[in-house]
Amino acid sequence: MIKIAIYGKGGIGKSTTTANLSAAFSKLGKRVIQIGCDPKADSTINLLGGEPLLPVMNYMREQDEEPDELSQISKVGYGGVLCIETGGPTPGLGCAGRGIIATFSLLEELELFEKFKPDVVLYDVLGDVVCGGFAAPIREGYAHDVIVVTSGEKMALYAAGNILTAVKNFEDRNYARALGVVLNCRNVDNEEERVQTFADENNLPILATIPRSQDITDYEDQGKTVVEGDDTLPVSRAYIDLAERLLKECRDE
């Protein structure tokens, strides 16, 4: 089982990247779990035909109790991907990161991995602020590898640098390692050169370059990933090639 945390600045395309990777892994015959770790709870929506999933924290608030079955807080989406969203507190109240910690603890109690037996687990994590809760996949041993999604834009690279600093802070504890960078193109000036320089400075490879594509938006408007919509497109092949690379390079538990 490989476990990957995918981080990046809000709006940089990490959820699109994660969902398309889930779809790509499923096409490669793998059993996949995708866990959205963002209060917006929209990580898995394009694996579920555009239908939002009830987040774990919302379930607990509405029912005033913890779920006792995985089916109460998950749905199976495209390619058999098991989808879960942590959610967060009522807007304006509480710490969003604590929703991740509470959800992870609950999933352990429900024996998620033992029951579903995944080959791949993907955590889609907000990376603007790597506080205790949002750092949980790094520091609690849930993920083995970290991928940072960035463009060549200044603030995206700045956030990526902060994420990598957080990962390095836990290196000596045998927690998750930084595996590499995914360039999600925004077509800014000298984008590939900027990201290559950033990757070189951090001694990391660029694992994949995802071209900017209207096809992604068009299929998301239909509630699909582009990999589901048309796996022959160049952008879909970029995600599938990335999935194949990760199967070779990620640490397997």
What is the strand tally? 8
The backbone outline, from C-alpha atoms, is globular
Mean pLDDT: 91
Specify the structural class.
Answer: alpha/beta
Radius of gyration equals 17 Å
- Uncertain spans, ≥5 residues at pLDDT below 50? none
Task: List SSEs in N-to-C order.
Answer: EHEHEEHHEHEHEHEHHH
Largest sheet: 8 strands, mixed
Tell me the fraction of residues in β-strands, as a range.
15-25%
Keyphrases for this structure?
single chain, 253 residues, alpha/beta, eight-stranded mixed sheet, 10 helices, 18% strand
Helices and strands in order, then pairings?
Elements: E1 2-8, H1 14-27, E2 32-37, H2 56-63, E3 75-76, E4 82-85, H3 96-109, H4 112-116, E5 120-126, H5 136-139, E6 145-150, H6 154-169, E7 177-184, H7 191-201, E8 206-210, H8 214-220, H9 226-229, H10 234-249
Parallel strand pairs: 1-5, 1-6, 2-4, 2-5, 6-7, 7-8
Antiparallel strand pairs: 3-4
Helix pairs in contact: 1-10
